[in-house]
Amino acid sequence: MVLTKESVYSMFRFVALLWRENIARLSEIDSRFGDGDHGVTIGKMADMILSRLDKRRDEGAKAFIESLGSECLEIAGGSAGPLYGVLLEGLAGPLPDDNAAIDARTLRAMFSSSRNALFEITKARVGDKTLMDVLIPATEAAENALDDVPAILRAAATAARQGLRETENQVSKFGRARNYGEKTLGTPDVGAISTALLFEGFQRGIEEEKAR
Ligand SMILES: [Mg+2]
How many angstroms separate the CA atoms of 166 and 89, rounded? Predict the structure, then answer.
C-alpha cells in the first residue's frame, strides 16, 4: 500500500475530527496547570484543516501539508500553533514535489523529519512531560516498523498511546506546568494528548480508506 493525496486528506480529516471531539477535555486538562487554552487552539487548527479540505481537494500532498503547517504557525494562543506548524512543515519536508504516492520509506522519512524539526526548536526530550514524549517514541516506532505503510502507522499510533500514558508518571519540566512540579503527577500532558490524537487520526484515516 502507498499513500495517495486522497489518503493524506483522509488522515488529516480524521485528525481534525478527533481534535474537535476532544476540545473540552483538552481545555479542562490544560486549565489544571496551564492557561486552559489548548482545546481552543486545537479546535482552531481542526477547523482550519477541515476548511482547507473543503477548498483544496486537488492540492498535492506536499503543498497541502505545507499549507496546514504555515497556517498553524499563524494561529495565536500559546505555543501549540507554532509547535504544530513546525511539526507539519517537517512532515512535508521529505515529500517529492511531483506528488508521487508515498511509500513506506518516504512515510518513515516524513515522521523522522517532523521530529528532527521539533528538536531544533525545543530542548524537551523523553521524560520532560511534553508532546515530545509522544513524538519521539512514535517516530522511533515508525523507523523500526516493517516496510509497510499500515504497519508504520499502527506502530506509531501504538507507541504514541504508550508515550502519552507515561506522561502521567512524569513531573512537568517545560511550559507553565513546570511551576506546579509534583502536582502534575497523575495528569497526562495536554500537548502529549493532542499529539497522540494526531497519530491516532493518521492511522484511523487509513483504516477508513482501506475499508471503503
Ligand atoms: Mg495553554
Answer: 27
